[in-house]
Task: inverse folding
C-alpha cells in the first residue's frame, strides 16, 4: 500500500526532487515528514489486518463453531471454522498488532515525527539518520511479526500479555516459531522505539525555535515529549523480558519455569512494569491531540494550560507505581495489592483534571463542528467512560470478580479505541492538509465519523454487561458454560455492531486515498490555527521553512485574544504595537 | 432492586464485593451523567453562531483546585472502603478444619481431600476430577496449585477468583451460604483447551455433606463420578510437595 502511493507521488513530484533521488526521497528518506507518512501508512495497513482478526474473533463468539465467511479458502481443513488454537492465535495477534503496530506507529511514530519539528520550529529531528533507521527497524519488526502467520505451528497464541510458563514452554501451546518470532519482533521493535525516543527528547530539548520556551510549547508536543520519556524507560523492560522469554524457549534457561527454579510471576512483573506505562504511551499523544484541536475549534485558549502539562507529568510519574493493579489476583502478596490500589486511585485524579479542563475549554467557546473536532469530542467523551470503568477495577475487592472478564475488555477498548483511535482519526483529519497538501472531503468525513461513533458504542458498551455477568476473556465458546448462555444475545449484538464498525471504515479509506491524489489543494492555514506548522507551506518542503525559521512571541492558544482583531493570533506573529504605546 | 447483571451471590463476602460494586456504579454513573450533561449543553449553547465571539480566558485557579480535590477525596474514601473487604478476603484466613487442595492442569481441576487421616500426601487422599463437594455455612480453605501453566479458579457466584501458579501453593477461602451446584470456569488463558476447562462445586447442607463424605472419602471408597466426566478413566496424578511439571 505504501509502495503504490509512493510511486504515484513520485510521478507528480519528481521534477522538484532532482537533488535527491527517488530512493532517498520516498524510501530511505531522512526527512521527518516523509518518515511520518511512512509510519502512518504502516499503521493504517496493519489496522486492516488487526481489524480483520478482531472480526474473526467476534464471529466465533456470536456464532460459535460456524464457518467464518471468507475464511474457507484459508482454513481448508475445517471449511472456515476456527479451531480453539487458531482462535487463541487470532485474539493474541489482534491485540499485539493493534497496540504495537497500529496505535504506536500512528500516534507516536507518525504524529510524533510530523508534529515535533514543525511545531517547535525545527528544521528536522536532531538525528535524521537515526530517525530513518527507527522507521526501517520498525518495518522489519512488522515483517517479522507477520511472518509468524506462515510458520508451522501457527503464530503466538498465549495472549498479547504472553504469560509464562504458557508462553515459555512450546509444548503448552503447540506454538513454536510463532512465539519465537513474536519475541524477536518485539525485541526489534524495542530497539526502534529507543531510537525514536532519543530523537524526540533531544529534538525537543535542543532544537526549539527562538522564543519557544518550554511553557509555550503546544500541549501535543508536551504529550509527545512525555511519551518519549516513557518509551525510553519502559520499552527496555519489555525488550529484556522478551529476550529472557526467548532464551527460556530456545536456550534452556529457566527464568520463568518453576521446574528449573524460575518464577512465573517474574514475567508478569516485567511485563506490567512495561505494560502500564505502555497504556499511557498509547493515550498521552491522543490527549495531546485533543488538547490541540479543542481550542482551535472552540476558538478559545485551552483551559488551564499549566494544569494540563503538569497532569501529564504526574501521569508519567505515577504510571511507574501502579502496574501491580494488573496482578491483584495473580498470587502476588495481597499486601502489595493494597498499595497498588492506593496508587491506582491516585492516577485517576490527573485524568479527571484533564477532562474538566477540556470541558472548561468548550465553555464559552464558539464551537465549530468540523470533522477533526467531532473526533476530538468523541475522544473526550469516550475517554471519560474508559477512565470511570478503571475505577471499578482499581477497587481490589471488585477487581477480584471482574478481572479477566469482558469488563476489562470493555475498559481497554474505551481507552484505546474510544481514546487513542478517535485521537488518531482527529489527528489525521486535522493535519492531513499540512501533511499531504490537500484537503479531505467533509461529507465523507461525516459519513465515517457518525457510524463509527455509533457502532463503536454498540460494540463495546455491552461488553461491560456481559463482563459483569461473568463472561471470561479469551474463551473460545461462551456456550460451553451454563451460566453464560442466557446472555448470548449480547454477543450476537456485539458482533453485528463490530461488523458495522468495520464497514464504517470504508468511507475513511476512500476519503483518504481520494483526497491524497485528487483533494483540493490546501491553503497555508486552513483552520486558522496559531501553531508554527501552519506557517510552513502545505506540504512543507525539505527543511520546512525558507531561509529563516519562525520566531515565537507567545503561547500556542491565543484564540479570540483582545490583542487581535481576528479570532486567532499565530505564535510567530510579532506584536503589532508595544503595550505602552497602544494606549493613546 | 436491579442487580445490574451480576449473577446471584451465594458467598459470605460476596455481599461486600457487590456493595462496593454498586457504590462505584452510582458514583461513576453520577459523574458520567454530570460530564455528559455539561458536555452536551456546552456543545449546544456555545455552538458557532454569527456575531458571537468566544470568551477569552486561560483558566481559573479556584476551579482547578476544586476539580482536583473533590475527585481525590472521593477516591480516598473509596480506597478506605475497599481496604476492609480486601483484607478480609485475601489477607486473612478464618479458623477452619476444612481443607481441600485444588490443582489446575491443562485442562482440568483436580480436587484432593486429605482423607480420614486429615493430611495431604498420604495414601488415603481422595482426588476428584472437576468436582468439589463442600458444606454450606462453613469456611472452606482451598490450597491452590498448578501442575503446568497458570490457571485461575473462578467461581462467579462466590465472587471468588484466584490464579493458580505453578511452583506455589496459594491458600484461599470462601464460605457458601446456599446449597446448590455452581460452575467453576478457568479464568486465565491456559492453552487451546482453556475454554471449557470447567469444574463444578456442589454445596451441600451439613447433613448431606456428611453423608457424601461418608460414602466417598472413606478409606476404601473409590472416587465417585456422579456427573459425566471428560476423561474419567484417566489416571489422576497425585502431587506431593512442590508441584512438578
Ligand atoms: C483512570 C485511569 C485508569 C484506571 C484507574 C485504570 C485501571 C485499570 C486496572 C485496575 C486494570 C486491570 C484490570 C484487571 O486486569 O483486572 C486496567 C487494565 C487495562 N487498562 Fe486501565 N486504567 C486507567 C486508564 C487506562 C488508560 C488511559 C489506558 C490506555 C490507553 C488503559 C488501558 C488498559 C488496558 C489495555 C488494560 C488491560 C490489560 C490486559 O489485561 O490486557 N487504562 N486498567
Ligand atoms: Cu494499568
Ligand atoms: Cu484456563
Result:
Amino acid at each position: 500500500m505504501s509502495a503504490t502511493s509512493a510511486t504515484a507521488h513520485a510521478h507528480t513530484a519528481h521534477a522538484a526532487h532532482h537533488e535527491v533521488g527517488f530512493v532517498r526521497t520516498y524510501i530511505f528518506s531522512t526527512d521527518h515528514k516523509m518518515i511520518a507518512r511512512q509510519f502512518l501508512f504502516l499503521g493504517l495497513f496493519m489496522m486492516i489486518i488487526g481489524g480483520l482478526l478482531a472480526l474473526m474473533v467476534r464471529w466465533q463468539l456470536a456464532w460459535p463453531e460456524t464457518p467464518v465467511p471468507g475464511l474457507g479458502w484459508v482454513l481448508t481443513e475445517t471449511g472456515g471454522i476456527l479451531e480453539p488454537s487458531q482462535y487463541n492465535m487470532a485474539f493474541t495477534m489482534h491485540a499485539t498488532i493493534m497496540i504495537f503496530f497500529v496505535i504506536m506507529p500512528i500516534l507516536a511514530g507518525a504524529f510524533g515525527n510530523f508534529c515535533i519539528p514543525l511545531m517547535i520550529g525545527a528544521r528536522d529531528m536532531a538525528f535524521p539518520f537515526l530517525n530513518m533507521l527507527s522507521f526501517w527497524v520498525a518495518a522489519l519488526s512488522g515483517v517479522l511479526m507477520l511472518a509468524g502467520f506462515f510458520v508451522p505451528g501457527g503464530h503466538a497464541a498465549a495472549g498479547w500479555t504472553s504469560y509464562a510458563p504458557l508462553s515459555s514452554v512450546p509444548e503448552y501451546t503447540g506454538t513454536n516459531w510463532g512465539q519465537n518470532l513474536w519475541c524477536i519482533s518485539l525485541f526489534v521493535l524495542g530497539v526502534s522505539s529507543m531510537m525514536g525516543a532519543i530523537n524526540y527528547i533531544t529534538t525537543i530539548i535542543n532544537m526549539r525555535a527562538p522564543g519557544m520556551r518550554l511553557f509555550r510549547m503546544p500541549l501535543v508536543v508536551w504529550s509527545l515529549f512525555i511519551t518519549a520519556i516513557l518509551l525510553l524507560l519502559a520499552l527496555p523492560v519489555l525488550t529484556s523480558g522478551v529476550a529472557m522469554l526467548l532464551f527460556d524457549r530456545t536456550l534452556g534457561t529457566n527464568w520463568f519455569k518453576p521446574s528449573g527454579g524460575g518464577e512465573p510471576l517474574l514475567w508478569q512483573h516485567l511485563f506490567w512494569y512495561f505494560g502500564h506505562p505502555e497504556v499511557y504511551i498509547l493515550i498521552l499523544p491522543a490527549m495531546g491531540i485533543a488538547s490541540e484541536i479543542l481550542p482551535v475549534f472552540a476558538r478559545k485558549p485551552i483551559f488551564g494550560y499549566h494544569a494540563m502539562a503538569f497532569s501529564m507529568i504526574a501521569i508519567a510519574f505515577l504510571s511507574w507505581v501502579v502496574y501491580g493493579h494488573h496482578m491483584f489476583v495473580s498470587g502476588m502478596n495481597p499486601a502489595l495489592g493494597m498499595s497498588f490500589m492506593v496508587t491506582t486511585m491516585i492516577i485517576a485524579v490527573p485524568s479527571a483534571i484533564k477532562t474538566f479542563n477540556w470541558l472548561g475549554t468548550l465553555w464559552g467557546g464558539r464551537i465549530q463542528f468540523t470533522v477533526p473536532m467531532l473526533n476530538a469530542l468523541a475522544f473526550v467523551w469516550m475517554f471519560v467512560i474508559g477512565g470511570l470503568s478503571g475505577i471499578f477495577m482499581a477497587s481490589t475487592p471488585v477487581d477480584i470478580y471482574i478481572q479477566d472478564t469482558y469488563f476489562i475488555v470493555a475498559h481497554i477498548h474505551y481507552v484505546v479505541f474510544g481514546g487513542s483511535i478517535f485521537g488518531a482519526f482527529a489527528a489525521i483529519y486535522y493535519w492531513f492538509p499540512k501533511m499531504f497538501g490537500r484537503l479531505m472531503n467533509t461529507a465523507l468525513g461525516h459519513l465515517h465519523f457518525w457510524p463509527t461513533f455509533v457502532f463503536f458504542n454498540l460494540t463495546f458498551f455491552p461488553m461491560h454487561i456481559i463482563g459483569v455477568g461473568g463472561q471470561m476473556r479469551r474463551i473460545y465458546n461462551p456456550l460451553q458454560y451454563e451460566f453464560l448462555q442466557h446472555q448470548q444475545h449480547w454477543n450476537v449484538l456485539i458482533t453485528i455492531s463490530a461488523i458495522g464498525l468495520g464497514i464504517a471504515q470504508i468511507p475513511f479509506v476512500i476519503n483518504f486515498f481520494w483526497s491524497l491524489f485528487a483533494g483540493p489543494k490546501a491553503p497555508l492555514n486552513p483552520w486558522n490555527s496559531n501553531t508554527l506548522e501552519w506557517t510552513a507551506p502545505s506540504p512543507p518542503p525539505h527543511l520546512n521553512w525558507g531561509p529563516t525559521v519562525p520566531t515565537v512571541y507567545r503561547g500556542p492558544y491565543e484564540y479570540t485574544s483582545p490583542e487581535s482583531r481576528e479570532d486567532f493570533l499565530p505564535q510567530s506573529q510579532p506584536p503589532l504595537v508595544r503595550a505602552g504605546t497602544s494606549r493613546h | 432492586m436491579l442487580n445490574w447483571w451480576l449473577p446471584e451471590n451465594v458467598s459470605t463476602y460476596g455481599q461486600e464485593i457487590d456493595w462496593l460494586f454498586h457504590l462505584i456504579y452510582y458514583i461513576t454513573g453520577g459523574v458520567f451523567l454530570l460530564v455528559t450533561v455539561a458536555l452536551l449543553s456546552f456543545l449546544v449553547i456555545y455552538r458557532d453562531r454569527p456575531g458571537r465571539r468566544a470568551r477569552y480566558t486561560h483558566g481559573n485557579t479556584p476551579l482547578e483546585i476544586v476539580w482536583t480535590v473533590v475527585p481525590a477525596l472521593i477516591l480516598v474514601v473509596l480506597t478506605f472502603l475497599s481496604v476492609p473487604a480486601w483484607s478480609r478476603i485475601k489477607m486473612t484466613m478464618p479458623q477452619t478444619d476444612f481443607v481441600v487442595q485444588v490443582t489446575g492442569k491443562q485442562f482440568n481441576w483436580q480436587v484432593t481431600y486429605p482423607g480420614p487421616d486429615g493430611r495431604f500426601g498420604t495414601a488415603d487422599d481422595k482426588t476428584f476430577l472437576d468436582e468439589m463437594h463442600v458444606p454450606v455455612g462453613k469456611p472452606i480453605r482451598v490450597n491452590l496449585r498448578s501442575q503446568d501453566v497458570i490457571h485461575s479458579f473462578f467461581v462467579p457466584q462466590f465472587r471468588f477468583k484466584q490464579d493458580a501458579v505453578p511452583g506455589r501453593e496459594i491458600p484461599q477461602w470462601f464460605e457458601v451460604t446456599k446449597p446448590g451446584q455452581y460452575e467453576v470456569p478457568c479464568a486465565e488463558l491456559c492453552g487451546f483447551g482453556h475454554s471449557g476447562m470447567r469444574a463444578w462445586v456442589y454445596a451441600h447442607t451439613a447433613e448431606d455433606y456428611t453423608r457424601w463424605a461418608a460414602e466417598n472419602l472413606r478409606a476404601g471408597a473409590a472416587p465417585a463420578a456422579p456427573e459425566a466426566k471428560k476423561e474419567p478413566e484417566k489416571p489422576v496424578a497425585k502431587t506431593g510437595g512442590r508441584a512438578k511439571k
